[in-house]
Sequence to fold (232 residues):
Amino acid sequence: MKRILLKLSGEALAGDKKTGFDEATCMDVARQVKVLADRGLQISIVIGGGNFWRGRTSENMERTKADQIGMLATVMNCIYVADAFRTAGLETEVFTPFVCGSFTELFSKDKAVKAMEDGKIAFFAGGTGHPYFSTDTATALRAVEIEADAILLAKSIDGVYDSDPAVNPDAKKYDTISLDDVLDQKLAVVDLTATIMCLENKMPLAVFGLNEPDSIADLLKGKFNGTYVTVK
Ligand code: UDP
Fold:
């Protein structure tokens, strides 16, 4: 792999607090990403917004407004994590699909690829810039646009299971599964729009648990303990 897109959920950044940021968690992610960057991997990052905002507060709220707040939450997350990366000695650039004044750069494929080629970590904040999408969709879209070799999906769960292990103690974890099977079996690896986008554009994923020590740093060491989601 030469170029990857790492997706972190917003909640993963909050640690046990479930909301806001846990500094130690973010610094540990930064340390691990630096291990990959030091090996010459080109790295981009998408972060969710769940540590700040989860959809509408009530049915009275308009969906588009709730989604705009969600997208802004992802901008806050990227600004915070990019700063944690700076502390860890990494250079970063935060891109958004809409203008955020001087806080971020307006996304373009060329600028993002140039940043990564220059050794910077490219953050894709603000989702797709459109309501009714998710950061999963933004992950699939950006990965395809920047011609990433794979999406690395860091989750609170350590891979893809045939049923929810929190509900079914006999749930079986896959070492490998195809995107076709993910779709057929309606497995919630990423949401449906993102699944189809990965399928159509032959974008593989590696799904793993963020909570396991060094799970990001070990990715290139052949110590992978999660699930490979393959394309035909
Ligand atoms: N969002 C959106 N369009 C996008 C990406 C995100 O409207 O292209 C909004 C949506 O409301 C979503 C929120 O931003 O609920 C945060 O993203 P997500 O729920 O994917 O975050 P995660 O659950 O991964 O922390």
User: Anything to note?
Assistant: Helices lie at 10-13, 23-38, 63-87, 109-117, 135-145, 179-184, 192-200. The first helix runs from residue 10 to 13. The mean pLDDT is 95. The chain has seven helices and nine strands.
